[in-house]
Amino acid sequence: MRSVGVEEELLLVDSGTWQPCALSTAVLAAVSRDPQGNEDVFESELQRQQLEFATRPQTDMGDLREEIVRWRGEAARHAEGLGASVAALATSPLEVSPTIGSGERYEWLKEHFGLTAHEQLTSGCHVHVSVESDEEGVAVLDRVRPWLPVLLAMSANSPYWQGEDSGYASYRNRVWGRWPSAGPVEVFGSADRYHEQVADMVASGVLKDEGMVYFDARLSHTYPTVEVRVADVCLDPSTTVLLATLVRGLVETAARRWRDGEPPARHGLALLRLATWRAARSGLADELIHPATMRPAPAEAVVRALFDHVRDALEDSGDVLPAQEALAALLKGGNGAQVQRELLHRTGSLTDVVAECVARTRG
């Protein structure tokens, strides 16, 4: 069975004002002093108002959920010792002036990308799924392309930007898309072609290195995995686990179809960009572009089409029933964007929205 690992980026906020606070260095220092260790789990991100953790590779989704809840809790514990909290929010609902971290890499990004780098206080969820080879991995990338916007819609958790409603379910996706290497990609056809494209992008001088290849899904340059990067960080850990389950199902389904000689869909980049925009705009609250027809369809129908697409793989991994239950809960309760807007409607305060999201982050 393919292993799955998850990386989540969390927002650090002041426990009194709920404003984002630039404490990642202090939190990581607290982690390093902790006798329990776990230094290899947490790391800094571009902005000091963020903290990232990574789970170990897991094959059982129950074990993956336990790790996600555990590391969210540990992040909260270390932040609380500094008068802060963590929130699984993909953008800050409250106004913030982000603070770029120190170090040669971050200085390079700030110098070369200006306001694009300065404004990048966005938090995503990255799902790694093991593959047997780069050739299998690229075959997977070629075949999952039209389904990635559906994952974005399910995870959408960033409706607010600088104290205002952005009009999007995932405004993180729009901000992240300012990087020149971000977004959907064409069909590569082979691992050689993929690596040639990445090498050419780095050789252009626009990117610092291979780590800046910000495709919505890519081969990891660190692990033998396909890394799906399109999603917002999810408010509820159950949504993160559902996302990871579906991504593993997508990878397995794509690999099987590749081995059976089935070619990938040839949807052009222009259509995939439109599908991504639609998912970021609407989330689960309106229509999405159906990956099979590339025409509009109700969001619930498109999400269920994704589930049907990977059902055989989910049955083989024993994930059908828990995924069905999690999907039903998501469609009933809404994604993070819908929850945040409902909270604002009920409380009338973005500060209260952040406070409630802090409480929900642990699940």
From TrEMBL:
Q: Which SUPFAM superfamilies match?
A: Glutamine synthetase/guanido kinase
Provide the catalytic activity annotation.
L-cysteine + L-glutamate + ATP = gamma-L-glutamyl-L-cysteine + ADP + phosphate + H(+)
UniProt record, GO biological process: modified amino acid biosynthetic process
Q: Give a yes or no for keyword Ligase in this entry.
A: yes
Keywords tagged on the record = ATP-binding, Ligase, Nucleotide-binding
| Superkingdom as given in the UniProt entry | Bacteria
The record, for InterPro entries, names: GCL_type2/YbdK_subfam, GCS2, Gln_synth/guanido_kin_cat_dom, YbdK
Q: Report the EC number(s), separated by commas if there are several.
A: 6.3.2.2
Q: Which Pfam families match?
A: GCS2
Q: Which residues form a coiled coil?
A: none
UniProt-listed Gene3D superfamilies: 3.30.590.20
GO-annotated molecular function: ATP binding; glutamate-cysteine ligase activity
- Function noted in UniProt: ATP-dependent carboxylate-amine ligase which exhibits weak glutamate--cysteine ligase activity.
Q: Which NCBIfam families match?
A: gshA_cyan_rel (TIGR02050), PRK13517.1-1 (NF010041)
What protein name applies here? Putative glutamate--cysteine ligase 2
> What organism does this protein naturally occur in?
Streptomyces solincola
Taxonomic classification, please? Bacteria, Bacillati, Actinomycetota, Actinomycetes, Kitasatosporales
